[in-house]
Amino acid sequence: MSNSEQPLPPRTDTIPASLDRIVAAIRESKGTNLAGLLLLLLGLFSVFSVLLPGTFLQPGTMQSMMFQLPELGLLSLAMAIPLVSGGLNLAIIATANQAALMMAWILTTQMPPDAAGSEIWLWIGIAMVAGFLLCLTIGLVTGFIVAVIGVHPILVTLGTQTLITGISIWLTRGQTLSGFPDALIQVSNGTIAGIPISFGIFALVASAVHILLTRSVLGIQIHMTGSNLESTRFSGVDTRRVQIWVYVLSSLLCWLAAIVMMARFNSAGADIAQSYLLITILAAILGGIDPYGGFGRVTGLVVALLILQTISSGFNLLGFSQHLTLALWGFTLIAVMAAKRIIGVLVTRFRSRSSSGIS
Amino acid sequence: MRKLFASVLGHTETSLAVVIIVVVLVFSVSSPYFLTLSNTADLIEAYSVTTILAAGVFVVLVSGGIDISFAAVASVTQYIAAMVATKYGVPAVPAIALACALGALLGCVNALLTYYLNVVSIIVTIATSSIFYALLIYITGGSEIYNLPDWWTDRVVFLRFETASGDFARITLPMVIMVAVVVLTHFLMSRTHAGRQIYALGGNPDAASRVGIRILRLQLLVYGYLGFLAGLAGFVQAHRVHQVVPTAMFGTELSVLAVAILGGASLVGGLGSMSGVVLGVLLLAILQNGLNLLGVSPYFFDVVIGLAILISISVTALTERRMRGRRRIAGAAS
């Protein structure tokens, strides 16, 4: 077996014919509760429209929802890919913060203060490349420990999370960095035809991840690895390569989240947005991604994110505290899991009854 | 000799003990203040809350679950106990009993949801943790309680030594509670019927249920026990800092989990020992204190913990694989 520590381009060889059915099942994704989630979203929209006539269903409200969604959305995508592969990445917030700090450090201390025009964009480019390389390194190291040394991803990312946050705090002494070039802030907080640019980035990235997971060879291999690592390995897939890719992709999504976050908060620090970590898992599970791995789609995750954002915006407009929103998010997850379980039990009972009636 | 060690302590425990001895030797040579009696006592007290929580998390990990709601549970129980104590003047014993009972109750909620929803416990406890914590902050408005009664904040000293250098070393209440919790948990896990069943459940849930272990009852015990300890830890934490801040314990989930794992508890369940967890805490405490005395920046400490976790899990995984390989070769030869 090849011991690939470097990410290789996805293999383009064809999938064996016997796998056609599995691939079709992954592409159609039987068993996700997308219809139920859409119904819940529609229900929430109706409830808030009735409770908040004239304020909820307004362009302004919709636009502010679109401004708030991308950072949690990108971080949730960074969590979703490891979850589908049967793992977990507890270091996403730490990675995003460190990338943001790296970019902020270049923009605030390395860039000459009298830089103007295209020179500013050159420095922004340098900062982004540096952030990209940092996240690539973090992803490769995480993937290496998971895939080659063979440690459970929760343990590895618990360690990397502590280490990365530790390094960030050590280097910054817990300070935050702020004061980025106006050009960056203006572009990333700007809108095109009323749609925030950051939301556009999120929509593009989500589509790309969706296509990657359902249409590419690597995506199918990620699903298979999540379903059963050993049998995937025995069927000739280099699961080490797949797992390294998973953590590289996850970390690179953190890099995108870092750019959106530092532009929106206009600051970077080691402790920013720590509370998002568990919420990304909550969103992913709510969106129908199987915590045991192997199943889940980006569409479900996006609908789940819309549900969470709708609850948050609606409650905000109703004048409830942000904390009540968090409690309701928790209740929503438990309610959706309970509904799934009850429907599952009812379906098995109905099937066994109807089959016994026939015989 | 190595075999003797291994049979007494097990694998992770042996390597932890060796590492601790090396670290202690290095620090003792480089700093004269290290390993003095008063220093050691302070060290133990500083880690009492973490150890109490890690003991509960260890039990859940052995049963094959992961519970991260304990910080929220500790905050809730701590706040409610402080409220009844300050507003209604409830005395010490009922207030502490209330905190522990409430913690156990919230733990049982986790157990019931995990069992009936048939979902991994980390997901359930992420949801319940958000609910408990958010409701606490919402209802209390995040306000702190400073005027704790004297019985809560007064330092209880059981024993006091004067050391040769004139410093005092004290055996205080947090240490006594911590030792009691460690002994109780060790007894529960290795000397009782229920403890063996918890290992069986974590090792193989299907097999455990086939041999007649009642899983729901066992899960109620496991998660209830962690909730109970969270209530106790909440009390000790407020005792040490003399105030109740709703946000004080939040965010400690992952570091306590890391401590339990460093001590050899496995995420897959069925493995680990209380002595391993204690050694894990001890290693972190010694590292932190030693680095402090050597004048290393406290900001650097998380870097050391992170490296310690990564090295320890990697070494464990590699030795396990080597042993598995050796067994396979032995099997092929015979």
Topology at a glance:
The complex is a heterodimer of chains A (359) and B (334).
Chain A: H1 20-28, H2 34-51, H3 59-84, H4 92-110, H5 118-149, H6 153-172, E1 177-178, H7 182-188, E2 191-192, E3 195-196, H8 197-215, H9 217-227, H10 229-234, H11 239-265, E4 267-268, H12 276-286, H13 298-318, H14 322-358
Antiparallel strand pairs in A: 1-4, 2-3
Chain B: H1 2-9, H2 11-30, H3 37-46, H4 48-62, H5 70-87, H6 92-117, H7 121-140, H8 150-153, E1 157-162, E2 168-172, H9 173-191, H10 193-203, H11 205-210, H12 215-241, H13 253-262, H14 274-293, H15 301-333
Antiparallel strand pairs in B: 1-2
Question: What's this entry about, in short?
Answer:
The complex is a heterodimer of chains A (359) and B (334). By secondary structure, chain A is mainly alpha-helical.
Low-confidence stretches of chain A: 1-13
What proportion of the residues of chain A is helical, as a percent range?
over 70%
Order of helices and strands of chain A: HHHHHHEHEEHHHHEHHH
Secondary structure class of chain A reads mainly alpha
Number of helices of chain B: 15
Q: What is the number of helical segments of chain A per DSSP (H or I, 4+ residues)?
A: 14
The CA-CA distance between the termini of chain B, in Å, is 27 Å
Biggest sheet character of chain B: 2 strands, antiparallel
Structure, explained:
The complex is a heterodimer of chains A (359) and B (334). With 359 residues, chain A is mostly helical. Chain A has helices spanning 20-28, 34-51, 59-84, 92-110, 118-149, 153-172, 182-188, 197-215, 217-227, 229-234, 239-265, 276-286, 298-318, 322-358; strands at 177-178, 191-192, 195-196, 267-268. The termini of chain A are far apart. Mean pLDDT of chain A is 81; it is low at 1-13. Chain B is built from 15 helices and two strands. The model of chain B is unreliable at 1-9 (pLDDT under 50). In chain B, strand 1 (157-162) and strand 2 form a beta hairpin. In chain B, strands 1-2 form a two-stranded antiparallel sheet. The radius of gyration of chain B is 21 Å and the shape is globular. Classes of the chains: A mainly alpha (359), B mainly alpha (334). The interface between A and B is large, with 45 and 48 residues.
